[in-house]
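User: Need the bound-state model for ribulose-5-phosphate:
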Amino acid sequence: MDGKKMAGEKAAELVEDGMIVGLGTGSTVYYTIKKLGERVQSGLHITGVPTSRATEKLARECGIPIADLNDTAQMDVTIDGADEVDPSLNGIKGGGGALLFEKLVAKASKRNIWVVDSRKMVQQLGAFPLPVEVVPFGYKHLMKTFEREGLNPVLRMKEGRPYVTDGGHYIVDIKLKSPDIGAFGAWLDGYTGVVEHGLFLGICDLVVIGDGSKVYTKNRAEAKNIIL
Ligand SMILES: O=C(CO)[C@H](O)[C@H](O)COP(=O)(O)O
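Assistant: Bound-state model below.
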């Protein structure tokens, strides 16, 4: 079976009755949402807090009751995908363009679980370009700054136009500056015009990994594999 499907479906089993669940975005958590929908049809009571319009639509189609982040004090758990995950469970997210809402929901969650296929697990982050969500006004100036810093900025496009996020911003994909990714994230955080970036550091508690033949987890505290 596809590693994404294995991981996505397994994570849905970790959700308990009565939970408020942050619902991530992407092709792996798709399987989680589908499975949660099946569990809801069988009597599970949960409330989902979506991280994108696409996820909200999918969750509604699956019959999952939905709440807005503003009406929710805290999620019990958020389940989301990731583009790269390192051995300390730091990650790059935003390949699907939902990083801002994903980070907002993740930071309001007691626990964060990521679902990935095993190819996403890396020794060091950075082969995947780092998505940076930027304000459209004057974005070319920001791109010039990134260019000067040697970050190879590329404006994300869709159908010949700049890709626009659910929050109404553009995305510039850049090269991650390592090894001090914490300092790099802080530099981006402080830059005028940057709304958010896809470095998710110290956020993920547990990653569920599917490799096609088995599913295993790695948790941040122990950083060891547990085969499910
Ligand atoms: O961060 C994301 C969207 O903004 C996704 O979670 C990430 O891109 C992984 O997606 P997929 O599961 O489709 O590979």
